[in-house]
């Protein structure tokens, strides 16, 4: 079952264009959104969430078009750009007191569950947290209002290998609870470890959108790793 459908998304800038971007996000699956820096990952995500206005295309979540249903949809979505950058000197518990007012789906039991799972101290301030713990703090906010889809822009960027591995294990745990996890990255090893599906974008265009197994089957040459495949495809796109 698809939780989100993106069809024909376009956004034009003077020096960059998002061109006819289409893919879906499945329930209880981890989708890795991969591409080199500047390929259009962040523009796509912000267009999906109407944080920037696409020039054309259709975006729907839970069978509802974003246009006309944005408030309802966003109550069911968790979005994170990575680390906490707002109110860095407020205690986590004070930030939570602010955030929970915006969600009638806020679940204190879920908050306590993820606070314990992520080993976060609610009496600490974001400025006191490591980069990995800041990412977990953002996830804590999203999951505590029972988000059914997590849309994460480069959540593992800048994290040490241990923190990255820990975060990917959390993604795997969440998908078993039926949460759809969609995260952008340029770190191919992260995709290898946990992704069920791959959406690959290059120069504003979707090159491939499929299950990871189908992606490997359709695009690999003898003896290639996933990283080898991606590098070869990227070179072919550049040379096209």
Structure commentary:
The protein has 240 residues and is an alpha/beta fold. It contains nine helices and ten strands. It has helices spanning 41-48, 70-74, 92-99, 108-117, 131-143, 161-176, 188-194, 212-219, 226-239, and strands spanning 2-12, 17-26, 30-34, 56-61, 64-65, 77-80, 149-153, 180-185, 197-202, 205-211. A hairpin with a 4-residue loop joins strand 1 (2-12) and strand 2 (17-26). Helix 4 packs antiparallel against helix 5 (131-143). 38% of the residues are buried.
Offer a concise description of the structure.
The chain is α/β, with parallel strands linked by helices and 240 residues long. 37% of the residues lie in helices and 26% in strands.
Contiguous uncertain segments of 5+ residues = none
> Roughly how many Å is the radius of gyration?
18 Å
Structural class: alpha/beta
What's the N-to-C terminus distance?
35 Å
Sheet bearing the most strands, described? 6 strands, mixed
Question: How is the largest sheet built, in terms of strand order?
Answer: 6-7-8-3-9-10
Proportion of beta-strand residues: 25-35%
Give the averaged pLDDT, no decimals: 89
Total number of β-strand segments?
Answer: 10
SSE series = EEEHEEHEHHHEHEHEEHH
Principal-axes geometry comes out as: globular
Helix content: 25-40%
| Total number of helices | 9
Entry keywords:
10 strands, 4-stranded antiparallel beta sheet, 240 residues, 6-stranded mixed beta sheet, 37% helix, 9 helices
Write the SSE topology:
Elements lengths: L1 E11 L4 E10 L3 E5 L6 H8 L7 E6 L2 E2 L4 H5 L2 E4 L11 H8 L8 H10 L13 H13 L5 E5 L7 H16 L3 E6 L2 H7 L2 E6 L2 E7 H8 L6 H14 L1
Parallel strand pairs: 3-8, 3-9, 6-7, 7-8
Antiparallel strand pairs: 1-2, 1-4, 4-5, 9-10
Helix pairs in contact: 4-5
